[in-house]
Each structure stands twice: as structure tokens, then as C-alpha cells.
Amino acid sequence: MSPWFCDDAHLSLQDATFARSQAGRFLDSAGPTDRVAIYTTSGQNTLEFTSDKAALHRAILGVVPRALMPQEMGAECPEVTHYMADQIENKHDITVQGVAIEETVQCQFSGDETKRVQAAGIVQSAVLRALSAGDVENEFTYRHLEDVLRRLSSMPGERIMLFVSPGFLLTTTYLDESGVIDRANRANVVINTLDARGLYTPDVMGDISRPSSDSVRTAGQKTMYRVSAQQENQYVLGDLAYGTGGTFFHNSNDLQGGLQLAGLAPEVSYVLAFSPQNRKMDGQYHLLRVDLAKKLKYSVQARRGYYAPRKVDDPHELARQEIQEAIYSQEEIHELPLDLQTQYFRSDPEGAHLSVVSRLEVKSMHFRKSDGRSLDEITLATAIFDENGNFIAGGEKTVQMRLKDATYERLTRTGLTVKSSFAVKPGRYLVRQVVRDSEGSQMAARNGAVEIPF
Questions:
Q1: For the chain, which terminus, N or C, has the lower number of CB atoms within 10 Å?
Q2: How far apart are CA 298 and CA 450, in angstroms?
Q3: C-alpha–C-alpha distance, residues 321 and 306, integer Å
């Protein structure tokens, strides 16, 4: 049971057609009990876990290129790609900028050299448009990747995601890439990646559906930029796979075999952590190198590096992220003693009220003393999932505790009880609750099951 995440925002029509054909053959060879889910970057084609081959084939046929930003028809002048825009705006490459200006002079001003200043302004506008469009598509990809990770983290058993994509440029989004890898590792999710381009040769003339405006003076440099961009597209696929212990399948037209291979978890895996000392808040990408101590006949797959933040992490944002990640996991956390009980009341034949009663032992918490009171803040997040792992309902409560000594002594004996209620339909549910206190940054997470008969 694994989800396929298809990057339809970056797929070309040629890649999508080939990938659909290979995926359809793979589905034909799947067993009757194999369950697959289909998700896409655009969010316009989603199929939850099922073993219905007819439904899966329909979903696969629906995977077509869906650019998230408007595409220009015909030749652009100047033609500034996402790669070129990144080189000009983020890398400050004046050579690439000069090529774009020269192309503009030739295609818009018939080679009139007196128009270079005007051409430079046109190029800058084109750069900002191309950079914005490319970064928006990348942002959508990362956010949908995180959504699927949250979905998968609540699933039992081995957690494997298959990411089918032609790849895309990282530009300034190393931090987003690192965040996806970190989230996957914390949720024990392996990301296998498959290059949808298969075994390809660099496309030196560009996409046939979008003729280029290359002139004699710029054709050579533009060809070099296309080749460099197509090579760099694969880096994100390798990073996601190697950073989570997965497989990166590329440079092969046997996508059917790649799907078979990428649907398997590694036989043995280890998680190695690295915490840099005196970390610099420079916002730069820092390379890592992992080698075996002895010259053994093994290959090493590891992250290429990490992206340092530009500022100290906000503790409130960190707390929010910890709670969000824990709520979509099934791992229990025992830093705080927490007891979870559920009960339900039938309101009518079609619905019921599900109550979640939590009892937390206060004596294990770290309070801060101020003005004769014991201070702490408790956040309780509760989520209800159906038997297939779909999120049904949820809520969050914050309890501000400013306890006098007498109240504190009483609660250390009785504990703190909090009740949450949800309107649900009859069925089987998993109740997940996460508790975090602000002073000690301690957490507790518990799972409960309830069945409301029809």
C-alpha cells in the first residue's frame, strides 16, 4: 500500500504520456489486494487508497500537464526560462543577463544597439515573471508533498511514497526541500523518486510546442542553459530519495520496472543524525560528505547538505509544527503522563456526539513561579480519523494555568481533566490526541479507538 504523487505541474505532455503508459502496465500486474492512492501537485486529480484497478486506470489517465501559471503561446521575446531567471536574479550572473539583453535587442529592436538600455528593462521584467512563475509551481509541489506526508504518517505499517516527476530547479527553495526531508524522516516515511523523463538526451532546441526566439548570436549560450537546467532538474529527486533512505530511479526507460522497485521499502535502513556545532545563521547551503570508515564494497546514499536558517527559530512556530507533526503520526509520546478515554452519545440515527476526556498528571509538569503563582500553558490538539486514515474532525484547546499554591496542590492529586466533543457519523474511528506544555516543552501523544454502531 503506497501513494503515488505525480508532479503534473512540471510534467511535459511527452513525459506524461510515457509515464501513464508504463504506470498502466504496472497496475495490470498488481495483485488483487494491492492498494494504491493517486495524488497530484495541482490537486485536480486525487484518488484515495483503493484496489479498484478500473478506478486507478482512470486516475492515471487523468494525469496530464497542468501548469499552475499561465503559459505564453508561441515564441517569447525574450525567452527567459526559470533557470535563466534564477541565474540572473539570485546568482547575479551578468553573462546570462547579457545573453537575454542581446536576444531582446535582436528580436524586438532588429539589432538596434542604441536600444540596449530599453532592452535591459524588458529583460528585468521577464526575469521577475519567470522567477515568480517557477517558484510558485515549486511552492505548490512542496506544500502538496507535505500534505501527502501528513496523510501517510497516520497509516500503519511501512510508509513509502513514490514521487513521479521530471524534476525541477531548487533555486532558493533549499529550505523547503530540507523541511520535506526532515518531516519524512520524523514520520518514518521513505520517499522513492522516479524521473518521468526516462532515459533522455538533453533537448538542445527547447520544447517543440514553444518555439524559441534564439538568434545566431545567442543560440549557443541558450543551448548550454537548456542542457544545464535539464541536468539540474534531477538534483531535487536525488535529494528527496537519498535523504530519506529511498531509491532514485533514473536514466532508464523501464519505468514499469522502476515503479516495481520504487514500491518496495529498503531491507535494512539506519537513520544517522548530524548536528553542526556553532551553526551559522547565514541562510546558505552547506555541503555534507558521508564516507565509510573502511573501504568496503557498499554504496552510500546521503543528503548532499543542509540549508542554514537566517534567524533563530521562533519558539511558538516550533511548538505549532511539533504539535502538527505529532497529530498526524501514530507514535505514542510519554514525556507527560496522559490518560485518554472516549465515549459517545447517539443524537439521532444518522449522527452521534463523540467525547474525548483527557486526564493529565500536573505533578510531572515544569511550572514557572511568578507573583506567588505556578505558571504554565497547555495545548491539547485532538484529531479524529476514520478507519482508512482520513481526517474527519479535530480541534485545539489552550489552557492557561496561573495556579495558587492551594490549587496547585489539589491538581497534583487529582490531575487536570479536559473534555472535547465532536459530531460524527456511525463508524470506526481512531482518536489521536497530542498535549504540549510551554514551560517544559514536554509532550504526550495517545491513540484511542472507538466504534459507533450503525
A1: C
A2: 47
A3: 19
DSSP letter at 44? Answer: S
Query: Is residue 117 packed enough to be buried (19+ CB in 10 Å), middle (13-18) or exposed (0-12)?
Result: exposed
**Would you list the domain boundaries of the chain?**
1-312, 331-452
- From CA 173, how far away is CA 183, in angstroms rounded? 16
Share above pLDDT 90 across residues of the chain, in percent, rounded to a whole number: 17
| pLDDT tens-digit series, residues 14-58 | 888 888 887 887 787 777 777 788 888 888 888 888 888 888 888
Nearest to 58 by CA among 68, 66, 47, 69: 47
SS3 per-residue string spanning 130-148: HHHHHHHHHHHHHHHHHHH
Question: Parallel, antiparallel, or unpaired for β 159-165 and 2-6?
Answer: parallel
pLDDT band for 380, please (50, 70, 90 cuts): very high
- The most distant pair of C-alpha atoms in the chain lies apart, rounded to whole Å, by 87
94 pLDDT band (50/70/90 cuts)?
A: very high
The residue whose grid cell reads 503508459 is 21
CATH class of 331-452: mainly beta
At residue 341, the 3 state secondary structure works out as: strand
* pLDDT tens per residue, range 254-296: 777 777 666 666 666 666 777 676 667 766 777 888 888 777 7
